[in-house]
Amino acid sequence: MKYRKLGNSGLKISEIGLGSWLTYGTAIEQERSIACIHKAYDLGINFFDTANAYNQGAAEVVLGKALKEYARSSYVVATKVYFPMGEGPNDRGLSRKHIIEQCDASLKRLGVDYIDLYQCHRYDPETPVEETLRALDDLISQGKILYAGVSEWSAEQITDAAHIAKEKNFRPLISNQPIYNMIVRYIEKEVLPVSEKHGMGQVVFSPLAQGILTGKYKPGQEIPSTSRAANHNTNRWITSYLNDAVLTSVQKLENIAQGLGLKLSQLALAWVLRQPGVSSAIIGASRPEQVEENVITSGFMIPEPILNEIDSVLAEIDGFVPIW
């Protein structure tokens, strides 16, 4: 496993991270969840991402239970705050009240004394950015979190936050967690260069486009009955990818992967990691074997001629935006 610095910070995280969205505490059994986490740790993954909103805290509980047997200094836990955690008017967003209360709740669920990376799960237009940044800075001063980041913030929002942090002498944000994969590339235009300017690394989610970039879905064919897209509880995030134009391009990418002796999922991860602004690609896994398959990607360099070939295929679906 290779490791990269997260932005301009001194924190080093594995190129492949393990996430828990739609999996741990929800779609798969706890035993298998823990087995996946243990396999990831054994293979050198030290970056584990979750959120308080994932099954209303259940994912944090499973992650904390799985990591409890390891030395606390040996892994990096990232969690998030923003989405509703109750019915009250203050049970959501990025107000000081919600951030402080949810940080304490996440610490208890995870069973740890501190959170390595605490992220604003989305931008909150109803709360002054200064209030949010001050709350995060106070949590760092208290030792409850070590670093702060954001998720799916625009280039303008990142710029505004960076200026406020500098003006108020708050500790800077070190990361952004956006969606990024071969099909969805919006961050390349503005988010990546702005983040680099302000010392922020990307920890990207959905690098396999909800499983589309595994090659299991074929143009003109029925959805496999055992696939995630066939699950009525999760398929709303996948449906928009399932059009013939996208799937035809994906099939071409699979042929390129085979020519390199790789699976499409491995090529897709290597392609994401070709980007120097990306610190880690967060995978999901329902079986330990999937983790084993994906970690092979760490350190793999795609030859320049193949990158050019991939670019030609991706040009066919340039500008595609999934329903998110």
| Major sheet: arrangement of strands | 3-4-5-6-7-8-9-10
Unreliable residue runs: none
Figure out the total of helices: 10
Secondary-structure element series: EEEHEHEHEHEHEHEHHEHH
| CATH fold name | TIM Barrel
Count of discrete structural domains: 1
State the CATH class. Alpha Beta
CATH superfamily: NADP-dependent oxidoreductase domain
Q: Count all strands and give the number.
A: 10
CATH architecture: Alpha-Beta Barrel
Structural class: alpha/beta
Q: Approximately how much beta-strand content do the residues carry?
A: 5-15%
Main beta sheet: 8 strands, parallel, barrel
Fraction of residues in H or I helices: 25-40%
Q: Kindly report the average pLDDT value.
A: 93
> What is the 3D shape?
globular
Characterization of the model:
The protein is of the alpha/beta class. It has one domain: TIM Barrel (Alpha-Beta Barrel). Helix content is 36%, strand content 14%. The chain contains 10 helices and 10 strands. The protein has helices at 30-42, 58-67, 96-110, 129-141, 155-168, 191-197, 244-259, 264-273, 288-295, 304-314, and strands at 3-5, 12-14, 16-19, 47-49, 76-81, 115-120, 145-151, 175-177, 201-204, 278-283. Strand 5, helix 3 and strand 6 (115-120) form a beta-alpha-beta unit. The longest helix is centred in the last third of the chain and has 16 residues, at 244-259.
